[in-house]
Amino acid sequence: MKIVVLVKQVPDTAEERKLELATGQLDREAGDNVIDEINERALESALRIKDANKGTEVVAMTMGPDDAAQALRKALSMGADSGVHILDDSLNGADTHRTAATLAAALRATGFDVVLAGNESTDGRAGVVPAMVAEYLRLPLLGSLISADVTDDAVRGVRQGEGGTLNVHAGLPAILTVTERFPEARFPNFKGILTAKRKPVTTLSVAELDIPASRSRTVVVSTAERAPRAAGRKLIDDGSAASELAEFLVANRLV
Amino acid sequence: MSDVLALIEISHRGEIAASARGLLAAAARLGSPVAVVVSSEPLADDDVARLGELGAARIYSAVTAAASTVLVAPAVDALSAAAEAYEPAAVLTTNTADGREAAARLAVRTGGSVLADVVQVRNDNGTVVAQHSVFGGAYTVESTVDGGLPILTIRQGAIEGQAPAATADVSTASLEAPTAAAAVIERFNDDPMVSARPELRSAATVVSGGRGLGSSENFVLVEQLADVLGAAIGASRAAVDAGYVAQTAQVGQTGVSVSPQLYIALGISGAIQHRAGMQTAKTIVAINKDEDAPIFDVADFGIVGDIFTVVPKLIEAVKARSN
Predict the structure, then answer these.
(1) CA separation (Å) from A225 to A201, A229, B17, B133?
(2) In terms of CB atoms within 10 Å, which of A48, A63, A100, A221 comes out highest?
(3) CB–CB contact B145 A132 (8 Å)
(4) pLDDT, averaged across chain A
(5) Same structural domain for residues B165 and B214?
(6) Do A233 and B301 touch (CB under 8 A)?
(7) Does A229 score more than 90 pLDDT?
(8) Is residue B152 located within the same domain as residue B223?
């Protein structure tokens, strides 16, 4: 079985993240960029399938600037067999639709039985790219899963819905997205880090892919930064802080 | 005035989802609201009346047995058919897993574009403009679509108010079984109705607990304060990871974003990841024994102290005032 895991390099959520006010685009220089944690969970579930079935091939695929190769290296050091890097300046600032069209074309070229992705990235948080890819490839999507069981020809999973969960299934090929409820990813071990350097990474440009959507149509009209919150009163509790807080809440009509 | 489609979700038990109000309110700001509803049975008169009350000028009722057995695909088929029939200025869905998938697939099918996680909308001389709250409210971004159908996923609880009531005209269409490959729904597992507490995303008051609670037994303290305040319960990632409370309560960058009138953080240090989910709250109160906890940088009222002594006293004080 061949599993492609979609990974995205994002700003580290443990640091302050910034937008460029002129364009509304992500400021990639503002802090460290890392592989999105939700993608690590997706990769972990692919690696567990590989652990149980040695014939499984795991490919990590990303679209992003030069620097995004680091996210692929991390995935390779964790245990992915190979990487695909879609690298093209014309994709800078691509919207979700163009991104999905590009990924769909690259997936078609790479081939797969299962595509695994995160339910939403921590930067864009749109959560629509996997479904758009599924529509381009005319495949079922099992999205927002809290668990999944992949067999040779089908996948069963539990989907997090509003007010409950759903048991769902589909035949393969299919696209799956995982949520935070999936297990945390393993750490790369020393052997993994060493062998990652020798694993193949294919670089694809737009010209090498058959992409239907020609341009991004979503446009940022304005970007404004919120004034930082100012700290208010801070009391050291001397036994009376609770009643002062109660008075504060009453005075502000919050209780 | 142009039509604007709103995909109204119906639960598998046949109830109109609470998100219908906000969707139709947003649709009314952009044009004339058309409720698109997919159900296995024709809509009951009560449902039609309810959607009218919430502002639907028209209802496109798509009836198909697949509504409760095939995941999302019937909604995409219904929206495609309705988009063809009404040539709308925009399509709105919820920002839920179902709503986002329907929006995404519709965008590919119609050549449209998705504006995701929208918190406000406006009609700028016929152009649909969506507002987004980015990086936990650190930025406000407005976006639009240049050519093609704008498809907006609306954040739950973000749109206030209600559209003017209307008397809805209903047109009913029967949908063919989905032709595209789609996932099959085997079973619905409803969450047990454990409490009468408000829903976290839309609650006016949220009380959250962090690692400072120390154990799942101690987390009861959070519940007790929440219950005297009529609040929803939240938690930091640390508390969720430690198993004190269910993951659905997690507030932060990963988890739920909330913007309540009052947010009370108990034993939460306030890492950036947590602040990204709550810093747009109107008023923030923090109680933590670590004087240097970053949560105090965003708190309107902070108490450096032991939650196990301060919170019980606070509960008594609030009870005394409400009596």
Answers:
(1) 38, 12, 33, 10
(2) A100
(3) no
(4) 95
(5) no
(6) yes
(7) no
(8) no
In chain B, which residue ranges form alpha helices assigned H by DSSP?
20-30, 45-53, 73-86, 97-110, 220-229, 237-241, 272-275, 307-322
Say whether both B157 and B273 belong to one domain. no
| Inter-chain CB proximity A24 and B143 less than 8 Å | yes
Cβ–Cβ < 8 Å for A126, A132: no
Number of structural domains found in chain A:
1
Q: Can you give the CATH number for the domain in which A113 is found?
A: 3.40.50.620
Q: Which pLDDT score is estimated for B194?
A: 59
Q: What is the pLDDT of residues A192-210, one digit of tens each?
A: 999 999 999 999 999 999 8
Partners of residue A138 in chain B, C-beta under 8 Å: 180-181
Q: ipTM strictly over 0.90? A: yes
- Mean local confidence (pLDDT), A216-243: 93
Q: How many angstroms away from the CA of B27 is the closest CA of chain A?
A: 19
Asked if B188's CB is within 8 angstroms of A164's CB, the reply is yes
Q: Which domain holds residue A177?
A: 2-208
Cβ separation of A13 and B17 shorter than 8 Å? Answer: no
CA distance B274 to B253: 6
H helices of A91-227, where? 96-110, 129-136, 190-196
Domain membership of residue B59 as a residue range: 3-174
Q: Are residues B116 and B248 in the same domain?
A: no
- The CATH number given to whatever domain includes residue B142 is 3.40.50.620
* A contacts of B279 (beta carbons < 8 Å): 229
